[in-house]
Each structure stands twice: as C-alpha cells, then as structure tokens.
Design goal:
alpha+beta; 8-stranded mixed β-sheet; 37% helix; globular; binds adenosine-5'-triphosphate
C-alpha cells in the first residue's frame, strides 16, 4: 500500500502495540513489518516523520506546549474554562484523585477528557490527511486558527487517534523504542546520515533501499550536525579514572545555548542543538563573525551566552531562561528611562555620534539603546537579540571547538589539533566572540582575580578544585575532555565527561515537615525535615533535617503559621538537652536549634521549591540539601505523615539527573 493512503489508525495500532510490547526485538520487527506492508511505494518520509516527530524539520514549530495546548483543546471542545475537565487539562501535572495515574502525562489526561466526548470508531484519516492537517496547525499564526485545526482533528478522529496526534504535536511518543533502533530498522546507515545532515526527509529519500549501503558522508558547511555530547559522571575521581592516562582539558560548562556557527562566505547559519537555524542571532553577530573569523568557510561549535559589558562578566545564571528575560526586561526599562531623561535634560552630555542616533553597532549606548528599546515589542527572544545589539548586554559566542575549516572537515583530528586551528581561525573579541582553549582565548583575560575557564589538568585534585570553584561561581559545572579524541556527531560515549551539581526538576514541589524554628521570629526561618521511610502501612517515626527555609510567604501567612505552631514550641537549651529522638539533626554549630515543635504530629507540612540545584549537605542530616529554597505554600490540608521521605527525594534527584 502507498504510504500516504495508509490509514492513520494503522499507525495508531502500531504505536499502541509498540508501547505495550516488552521485547525490543519484537518492537523492531513490528516496525519493519509496518514499513514493508504499508509503505510499499518506499515513500517513507510521511510515515517516519510521524514516528520521529522531534527530528522533523520540514514543518515549522507548532507553538503548542502543554499549557497552550490545554487551552486550545478546551476551546476546540467548546468546554467552559472552569469546568472540571477543563481544570483537569490545565492542571495536568498535578494529579490528585481525579486524574490519578495519568497525572504528569498530558496526552493521557487529554485522552480521559476526549473519551467522554469522542466516539470510538476511527475517523478514517489517512497519513496524508494527518500530515496536511499538521502542516496547517504549524502554519496557523494564532491560537484561534490552531484551535480551529484541532477542532477539525477532533471531528475526524477517535480519542485514541487524538491521543497520538497530541503526542506527535508534543513531539514525544513515549514508545519505549529508541530512535537508534528505529533508524537501524529503517536502514543500517540512516542514523549516520541523519547525524551529519539533520535532515529526516533527505535520509528517507536517499535510503529507500535497505539492501543498498550508503557511503559514509562527512559533515558539510550549511547542514547542521548533531553535536558531540558529554557523559555524566558522579565526581571528579570517576572522571579522572575514566580518562586515565589521557591528556585532559577541563573546561567550565557554560550555561547558554549550544550553537554551531556555519560560515560560508557571507552566508552564516546559527544551528541550535535541535538543528533549528536561529537567524535571530544574525542581527547581533554576523558582522562580528565576518570580521573576526579569518577564514571563508568553517563550522564552529560553541555556546551562545549573554555578556554584561557594564560589569565585564557573563550575565547572571538563568539569563538565557524565562526568569532572566524578566530581569532583562526590568533592566531594559530602567535603562530606557535613564536614556530618555539624559536625552531630554542633558543633551550636551551625549556624544555627537549618539545625537545622530546611530543605529549601527556601537559601544555608546544611551540613544541607540533608546531607539532599540522602541523597536522591541514582539517577543522576549527578539528582545534578547536587541540587547545583544546594544551596549550593556551582548551576545557572546564562546567557541570551544572547530569542525570544518577551509575545504575540509577537521572532526577526525584530535581536540588538541582542533584547538590549534581554532586559535588560527578566530580572532577573539572580548565579550563578543571568544575561544575556549588552554592558555589562550578567553583564558588570556585571566589575571589576578579574574576567573580562568579552562586548563590542562595534571591530577584529580586540580579537577576537584576547579569544580568547586565553578559551583561557588554558580556555573553549571565542568566538562572534562580527552585532548586526543576526535569529534563525533551525536556521540555520548565518554570522550567528553560532564560533572554537575545534582539537581531536581525545576518546579518540583517538595512536602517537608517543620521541625524547628529560630527564636524570636522576626526572621522566620524554619528548619524542615524529610521523613525516614516508614515500613509499609505505618507512619514515619523519624524526621531528618533537610534545609532551612524562610522566604515565600506573605506576612499574614507567616503570622498564621507561627500562631498555629506556637503552642507546641519547646525551647531547646543547648547543650543540656539532646534533640528529641524523633528528629535527626547534625551537631553543626550553624544549625544549633532554638525551639522545637514538640512532636511531629503537631507540626505542619510546607511545600517548598528551590533553585534547580541540590547541594551535598554537611550541616543537615539528609544527604542533600537545597540551594535557595522558598516556601510555595503551607499545606494545612496534608497530614504530618504525608511528608516526603528521604529515599523518595534521592530517587527524585536521580531521576531528574538522567544522562
Ligand atoms: P545538560 O542538560 O547537562 O547541558 P545536554 O544533554 O544538554 O546536558 P550534554 O552534551 O550532555 O548536553 O552536555 C554538554 C552541553 O553542555 C553541551 O551541549 C553544551 O550546550 C554545554 N556546554 C557548556 N560548556 C561547554 C563546554 N565547555 N564544552 C562542551 N559543552 C559545553
């Protein structure tokens, strides 16, 4: 059967079966059978783009993350936004009795809701029709149009089919079969070809015949390459052991966006980690690249960061994330105001060039910033680019590798050799374009007091020391690289190792129990604990000190909380009395308790959130503590024994850390 005429319901059956099956070999065989039977015309792309939606770059972005999708579905189904099902969709993460086991999986929560509104019979859409509608969804410019397309989908599918449409839109099918296996089953050379082209359509078209091998292709300027990746290690000693006997460079792990710069004469592309061409960088960076990359054709691998030229340092942690955007926005507004005031009241202070309102790249920012500021109105992303263009905040590319130079790919050369090429190819420009090579580039700014960003390590202690410094500095961690290694697309086998502080998923709420508080209460600071995991069907017997938390509540909320707990506070007279046996704390002097809550049963649960990092804890009894915890809310609705236990917390940290 021709692929495009195959019913989408056939794909849904394949997806359902694959998701349920346990054996990887059977999953692969079933996929092969599907390709043979339902893509007999060897037009594989229409089907494979639905199996690997995260790799499909032919369609633009849908602009639909779960939260927007929830609202669009609510509207498409004609539900009231405060109906029970609408709230279920909006609060899909939360769970609770109603959403039950599906909590946290948007597509499943949506299926629950859809099942009550859609029939069970297949809508009969073909693969072509699904792709056409998805094209429309991606092309639609506003939520009303998207809602219209979703409504058409709903009319033409049943709940099961709609579930898979939603998963395709969210670009994660959770099939339990790796991308590698899918590629391999399709064609033995598919993964290799995809890694160097990032073009799924091209892969499907070039590799129509499974029995005909494809000559290994090298990287090309202008085609995104899947980046070399880093393998996670637990500590410096493990990293050192893994790279035993090798010459090793240790680098700061910058917290920006991984960007490949492809320069081909005047044509410049900025490919992100998921192979999108971020043309918005062009505005701020193209001229700098033209002037400071001293070769016509090349590919640089690096991290795009924000440089604060007024403070002469990388902009604060998180500035590339949503939260930072708000900060930038505030800064922008202040600077804008300042510029306007200066322009109006002290025009003579301005340089003639500024009075001319020069809109080219300039270091004298007052008026140009003002003009840029006015030009900014559409998106935060654009806002960031405009900042890059202006004086205070600039885009800075830190190139840590080079993949192509002149007419040849250099990925087969050693990292040490590539560093040498990088030195020749890039003329560093402080705060705009830097190279990360030992004893040069970004490191040549190292002088007393200024940090160094990479070095050749001679022993594990040096690695450990550098890691500690980066953490103090609130950097993301370190990357440890084998200087003798070549650069391999998509490789995570351990040529690069990353060491990061452990973290928990941003936004995770942790339910902890108040153990103690400082006395008197003017600076409310609660010592909170995690439960020692109780035996099944019993309540916890001990609580382990975990962190101190004070911020997050309003004065009224705080007053109410302290009033409730006050009758149960017992003053602790150090060192005469030991802590009550149901609390485990350390003897650390910083954590010398003031007043205890006299038994866990009388205490109250707090939901706390934190900076995404955890830290190994010496002052608290739990193995980890949190950086910058904040109280999200007081959980009067929870019983004391519903406190998170230490074991579950550790599992949470481990599952959050992944690769
Ligand atoms: P993470 O979430 O830890 O960044 P990841 O899966 O996005 O992981 P990894 O390959 O595992 O990516 O980690 C390396 C990432 O770290 C790179 O993709 C890059 O964006 C970033 N990075 C920052 N500094 C460096 C550096 N000096 N060398 C290599 N990668 C760096």
């Amino acid at each position: 059967m021709a692929t495009e005429q195959t019913k989408f319901s056939v794909m849904c059956s394949l997806f359902n079966w694959t998701q349920r099956a346990k054996s990887p070999a059977k999953k692969r065989a079933k996929f092969r059978k599907f390709l043979d039977s339902f893509c007999a015309d060897r037009n594989f792309f229409p089907a494979i783009r639905l199996v690997l939606p995260n790799l499909d770059r032919e369609r633009g972005s849908y602009g639909l993350k779960e939260s927007v999708l929830a609202i669009s579905l609510i509207d498409a189904l004609g539900m009231s936004r405060d109906s029970e099902d609408a709230l279920r969709l909006i609060n899909w993460r939360k769970g609770g009795a109603k959403t039950g086991a599906n909590a946290g999986n948007f597509a499943l929560v949506a299926t629950e809701v859809l099942q009550r509104r859609q029939g069970t019979a297949s809508g009969g859409l073909t693969i072509k029709e699904v792709n056409d509608l998805l094209d429309q969804l991606a092309a639609s410019e506003n939520r009303a149009e998207k809602t219209q397309v979703l409504s058409t989908f709903i009319q033409k599918t049943n709940a099961q089919e709609m579930k898979w449409i939603i998963m395709i839109v969210l670009k994660d099918l959770k099939l339990g079969i790796s991308e590698k296996s899918i590629f391999h089953e399709f064609h033995p050379d598919a993964e290799d070809l995809f890694n160097v082209t990032c073009d799924l359509k091209l892969v499907c078209e070039k590799l129509r015949d499974r029995n005909q091998r494809h000559k290994r292709q090298d990287i090309e300027v202008g085609k995104a390459v899947r980046p070399q990746l880093a393998k996670r290690v637990a500590n410096a000693a493990e990293a050192w052991k893994k790279l035993h006997g090798k010459e090793v460079v240790v680098e700061c792990k910058f917290d920006g966006d991984r960007i490949q710069i492809h320069k081909n004469g005047t044509e410049i592309h900025f490919f992100s980690r998921n192979f999108l061409d971020h043309s918005e960088y062009a505005h701020a960076m193209s001229e700098i690249i033209q002037q400071n990359i001293l070769v016509d054709r090349c590919i640089l691998d690096g991290e795009m960061l924000v440089w604060d030229s007024s403070l002469n340092r990388f902009a604060e942690f998180g500035s590339n994330q949503e939260i930072g955007m708000h900060l930038y926005f505030c800064l922008a507004t202040l600077k804008l105001l300042f510029s306007v005031l200066v322009t109006i009241f002290f025009p003579s202070l301005l340089q003639p060039r500024q009075q001319g309102m020069d809109l080219t790249v300039t270091d004298s920012y007052a008026v140009s910033f003002y003009l840029n500021g006015l030009a900014v109105n559409s998106s935060y992303l654009e806002l960031r680019c405009r900042f890059g263009f202006s004086g205070w905040m600039n885009w800075l590319d830190v190139a840590f590798d080079i993949l192509y130079f002149g007419d040849t790919s250099v990925i087969h050369q050693t990292l040490k050799e590539r560093h040498e090429i990088l030195r020749k190819v890039v003329r560093p420009l402080k705060g705009r374009l830097e190279i990360l090579v030992p004893n040069g580039g970004l490191n040549s700014h190292c002088s007393s007091g200024e940090p160094c960003w990479s070095f050749i390590a001679h022993n594990v202690d040096e690695v450990e020391k550098f890691f500690k410094e980066t953490i103090e500095n609130r950097d993301e961690g370190i990357v440890i690289k084998d200087l003798g290694s070549k650069w391999e697309p998509s490789d995570r086998s351990g040529k690069w190792l990353k060491l990061k502080p452990e973290y928990i998923q941003a936004g995770t709420d942790l339910d902890v129990l108040i153990i103690e508080t400082c006395f008197p209460f003017q600076v409310a600071q609660f010592l909170v604990g995690l439960a020692e995991r109780p035996s099944p069907n019993t309540h916890p017997k001990r609580f382990i000190s975990f962190c101190r938390v004070g911020t997050g509540l309003s004065d009224d909320e705080l007053d109410a909380l302290v009033t409730k707990l006050k009758p149960y506070f017992r003053k602790y007279e150090y060192p005469k009395k030991r802590p009550p046996s149901f609390y485990q704390v350390t003897n650390h002097s910083k954590e010398r308790p003031d007043v205890w809550v006299d038994s866990p049963e009388k205490s109250i649960i707090l939901s706390i959130t934190s900076d995404i990092r955890t830290i190994e804890s010496e002052v608290f009894a739990a193995p980890y503590s949190l950086r910058f915890p904040r109280i999200d809310r007081v959980r009067y609705d929870k019983a004391w024994y519903e406190c998170l236990d230490v074991q579950s917390f550790i599992e949470l940290v481990q599952s959050s850390n992944g690769t």
